[in-house]
Amino acid sequence: MTNQITRRSLLSGGAGALAGMAALPALTASKASADDTAGSTDGTYATAPLRSDTVNFGVVQSRVHPVDASNTKQTLKKNLDHMLWLIDRAQYYGGHKDFLAFHEFPLTGWDRWTRSEILSFAPELPGEETEAIGAKAREHNCYISFGTYAQYKDWPRHIMSVAVVIGPDGEIVSQQWKARNIHGVFVGFELFTTSVYEVLERYVEMYGWDAVIPVARTSVGNICISPCKMEPELYRAMSIKGAEIIIRTSTGGYNHLDMRNVCQSNKVYGALSNNAVSPGNKSFFETAGGGGSVIIGPDGKILTEVEGHHEELINYRIPMAAFREQHRIPDFHSELYAHVLEGYKSRYAPGAFLDYLPEGLDEAYQQFKEKARW
User: Fold this and answer.
1) How far is 39 from 44, CA to CA, in rounded Å?
2) I want to staple 311 with a disulfide (CB 3.0 to 4.6 A). Which of 40, 236, 276, 343 is the partner?
3) Are 221 and 172 in contact, with CB atoms under 8 Å apart?
4) CB distance 238 to 176 below 8 Å
């Protein structure tokens, strides 16, 4: 599989890649090739012009209520309306926010649903929900990001976990798929959402290698978003490609130390957006691991954080122009480690969901248990 992907990646501009980009034009924010974004000889990287020297960056810690699978339309609409209300409130005081970052699942929440249940309510991108959020982005002249379950016509019966960035014009700027699912954390079940890793070969054929680790080059900075924890290699790769602000979305938990290390070792700004306490949540304790949203500086120090579990907004004015003038991609000694990485085999091979899609969490557990390489 590796040789095949490498060969196809060399065929830049091939029919398969162009067809994929046409089907999903906002998957990445830049059509630059991987060489353009990571081939710097002086440590600089591709950017878009800034709208202002300073970026007022906000993180919204909001409640999470799982969609009722027996009443999907009404409960999804209720979550959307609350999210729109929070956007208005976030812009109501504390000065205008250039960027508002929501957590992993403000629209749908999370529950132990089956694939068929999630397919009954997972938004299409673009769709009614992104249009409503886009209208708020236009009204307030800001960027808005959030995570969501999503489905695409090009990927029938697949369910993706996607970070969406909507621009001040109301349009989707970037759709950043979850890079990989975590394994061995949940007792007796595994996630069955489709990440890039679970369909890597087809994903690269459709969208190209640059889309595997996308960077949204916006007028407020280069933005990367992921819910992945404890994988510093992923965030190193984002930083090599020019990430300036890395957003970590979360639902039900977080790790400040992990995120602070990402920011310190790569000298980038970071934000961790988690859910708030959620009264009336029918499936979990209302605390549900909520609270602790934070904004972190390039030195790994906390700049501002939510002190509690309730719904809250935090914001910090990032001196982006001054930061960008001095910032360079990470300086590390890749040649020391390349031979180790080349011989390493992860526990699970990529492509687990190319041929078979488990219907539920328990079935996914059995599938990965049988596919484990060590």
Assistant:
1) 9
2) 276
3) no
4) no
Give the whole-angstrom CA distance, residue 147 versus residue 234.
Answer: 18
Dihedral-angle region of residue 210 (phi above 0 means left; psi in -120 to 50 means alpha; beta otherwise): alpha
Can you count the helices (H) and strands (E) in the chain?
12, 12
Using the structure block, give the residue that is written with the tokens 């996630």: 191
Q: Would strands 143-150 and 160-166 be described as parallel, antiparallel, or unpaired?
A: antiparallel
Show the tokens assigned to 253: 């938990």
The span from the CA of 224 to the CA of 269, in Å, is 11
Contact 133, 81 (CB under 8 A): no
pLDDT tens for the chain, 374 residues long, are 333 333 233 223 333 332 333 334 445 433 334 444 455 689 999 999 999 999 999 999 999 889 998 899 999 999 999 999 999 999 998 899 999 999 999 999 999 999 999 999 999 999 999 999 999 999 999 999 999 999 999 999 999 999 999 999 999 999 999 999 988 777 788 889 999 999 999 999 999 999 999 999 999 999 999 999 999 999 999 999 999 999 999 887 778 999 999 999 999 999 999 999 888 777 778 776 788 999 999 999 999 999 889 999 999 999 999 999 999 999 999 999 999 999 999 999 999 999 999 999 999 999 999 999 99
β-pairing, 312-318 vs 172-177, is unpaired
**Whether the predicted model's global pTM rises above the 0.85 cut:** yes
Strand partners of residue 123: none
φ, ψ for residue 272, nearest 5 deg: -120, 115
Rounded Cα distance between 294 and 263, Å, is 12
